[in-house]
Write a structure and sequence with these properties.
single chain; alpha/beta; two-stranded antiparallel sheet; binds S-adenosyl-L-homocysteine
């Protein structure tokens, strides 16, 4: 019997309907799959049933990695390592589908890291990831809503995002204290080309630092009141940061980069 380790955020999925639903999010047959944080292999079992070409899993917990080896033998390739420390982007010869029910803080960190590091050639076809519901709500938030902010702007830059479903604590063992949400991400064909992703991070940090205040102060801080930028992007400085749509922030990041050149 495997005892769940709190330090590794281990909440194993046990609800069969949810497991089925996760693996029905996208077509897996003959595809290469990467599962991160497979745990006791509950989701892995459902993935195997859908006949993928190959399954790679990355699991940090040594004990669980051995357990997975015993359970699945040669059906899967186990990488006993920390997802935050390895370069998963260069492991594969073709685009993969990523599944992950990871500890919640790691899901957000990984998503940000992947978006920031994404090159022209996407290394994944899609991502099926679990988040704490509150975080998922921020990722998918539309502008003019209170959840809209840095995470929505970064996440939507290069990826299309679809909410699959909310998941109650009862679907896991041990039960987490919070609700979860499953999100599906796939690459956008066209997105605004920002040279350095950190420009986007920087301007959104400054704009959303005081989200209830008018745009005037952060705009002047970043652009020194540049009227050309204001006119070009049709920005009314008396609005709040949440009133400007995604496109405006991507374009602002480009304008910000021009200042330095
Ligand atoms: N996906 C499984 C397990 C979820 S629990 C299921 O749905 O049942 C989260 C899993 O992520 C655990 O197995 C935990 O050991 C693993 N994990 C936690 N941090 C990790 C990290 N940094 N890198 C890889 N795996 C990690």
């Amino acid at each position: 019997m495997i005892k769940a380790k709190k330090s590794l955020g281990q909440n194993f999925l046990i609800d069969k309907n949810i497991l089925e639903k996760i693996t029905n999010t996208t077509n897996i047959k003959n595809k290469t799959i990467l599962e991160i944080g497979p745990g006791t292999g509950n989701l892995t079992t459902y993935i195997v049933k859908k006949n993928p070409k190959k399954i790679f899993v990355i699991e940090k917990d040594n004990e669980l990695a051995i357990n997975l080896k015993n359970k699945f033998n040669n059906l899967i390739t186990i990488i006993n390592d920390d997802i935050l420390k390895i370069d998963e982007t260069s492991l594969f010869e073709e685009e993969v589908i990523v599944f992950g029910n990871l500890p919640y803080n790691i899901s957000t960190e990984i998503l940000s890291k992947w978006i920031i590091n994404l090159k022209e050639n996407f290394w994944f076809e899609s991502l099926v990831l679990m988040f704490q519901k509150e975080v998922a709500d921020r990722i998918i938030a539309e502008f003019n809503t209170s959840n809209y902010g840095r995470l929505s702007i970064l996440s939507n830059w290069k990826l299309n995002i679809k909410k699959i479903c909310d998941i109650k604590p009862e679907a896991f063992s041990p039960k987490p204290k919070i609700d979860s949400t499953l999100l599906f991400f796939y690459p956008k064909k066209h997105f605004v080309k920002i040279k350095n992703p950190h420009s986007l991070e920087k301007i959104t940090r400054i704009f959303f630092n005081q989200r209830r205040k008018m745009l005037k102060k952060p705009f002047n801080q970043l652009f020194n009141g540049d009227k050309n930028v204001l006119d070009k992007l049709e920005i009314d400085l008396t609005l709040r940061p949440q009133n400007k749509n995604l496109e405006t922030y991507y374009k602002l990041a480009c304008e910000y980069e021009k200042l330095g050149s």
